Amino acid sequence: MKRVVSIINCGTGNLLSVKNWLSYVGVVGKVVKESEDVRNAETLILPGVGAFSGGMDGLKKHLLIEPIREFIKTGRPLLGICLGMQMLMEYSEEFGRCEGLGIIPGRVEPVPDTKRDGQLHKIPHIGWSSIHSIMNKKEECNGKFYDSTLDNKNFYFLHSFMVVPSDDAYRVADTYYNGRRICAIIGKDNFFGCQFHPEKSGKNGLKILRNFLAL
Amino acid sequence: MDIKGANLIKGISFEGLRVIGNPNEYALRYYQEGIDEIIFIDAVASLYRRNNLKEIVRRTVNEVFVPITVGGGIRSVDDAREILSNGADKVAVNTAAIWRPELISEIAHKFGSQCLVLSVHAKRNNTGGWEALVDYGREHTNRDVIDWIKQGVSLGAGEVLLTSVDRDGTLKGFDIDLLKRVSSETKIPLIVSGGCGNPEHLIEAIEIGNVDAVAIASCLHFGNSPLQEIQTSLLKSNIQIAEH
User: Fold this and answer.
1) Which residues of B touch A13 (CB under 8 A)?
2) Chain B contact residues (CB < 8 Å to A)
3) Domain that holds residue B25
4) A173 three-class SS
5) What CATH number is given for A4-94+105-213 in this structure?
6) How many angstroms separate the CA atoms of B73 and B58, rounded?
7) What is the pLDDT of residues B154-169, one digit of tens each?
8) Model confidence, pTM
9) CA A24, A30, A33, A37: dihedral to nearest 10 degrees?
């Protein structure tokens, strides 16, 4: 029987693309939105685009917040993508404070609207950017979710907000936008989040997916 | 990739459309060669008042894992939803937005600005400016391109896709004056198309035109410059491209 990965539908996001991405590597993507489905899932993907509050409202409406927290405690793998990554944090500063899932300590704040030299740059941060592992993490990440073959590879970013973990232990890889450091991958053990869209990042994204499925 | 019916097509200044081939085969080939993003435009959508790309998009996203933008005939939030639910990441609006600019804010509010690309077809006029054309280059609007883009940005567009009608399909290089004017006044990412015939044109658009990205069609479809040759030239000029 094929492995099944449950994709949480919180009302936003390109679910079809995530589904196709999974089926490309021989996995069935099952779109779910009931708490029972989350509790019984083997593996979870939390996608999402758009506003933080909109995504959290979707999770609240379907009573998914506690089930997702419980799911992670059991050690089963979860991958958050873009907004799905941001919702793992404690809170966001997008249009006023909004509570997140609180799985990773830290917050979500706007991408700085200036380059390192102080000149204005374009927001959202759109396009392909290379990611770099946090130096002291290189060893421990090898062969796991992040491996050193992904270092300096490009991934597709499309976002105006970024996560700022308050504990560096969760920071896995960064990218730079005109000199501004942006957290590209966060997480540890069985739960990870990508600011970029791995499902839109060609074969590098597929490599991330295979690593995730091997957790 | 301009589409008419089931075919990938291409013209010169939006006229004399030639059939190139099967859009899904071309999309897959470009993806495998390392393209960053694919834009599908239904060339006759406004004429028939509907977008026929659903099936092509659905098939594409089965095996192509880069961002997909789809335009042509998007007249409502429902039209946008239908295209997005078939696997597109962004929708591009042009004709319907000119006649009813609120369409931009409606789609941006519903799906986010990152989802909404304002497609503008610019034709030089005799007063030194550019007029926005609609209906795949067939209809005049008397709208100044710069003013229209400013309005579109203020209504919530997330990106601008600017095509020079005069240069489209000519392979003679971009309308650099147009690029410079628009890029100096646009605060959101600007993608340009129309005229790219070789890698030097592309580098000129980025370095002198100061644009964020370049969209190319004829140059790839007709094999004037294969993608790999373009990538090599860009790397030599220190222009960042995706290493897939």
Assistant:
1) none
2) 31, 34, 36, 58, 61-63, 65-67, 84-89, 111-115, 158-159, 187-189, 212-213, 240-244
3) 2-236
4) strand
5) 3.40.50.880
6) 17
7) 999 999 999 999 999 9
8) 0.92
9) -130
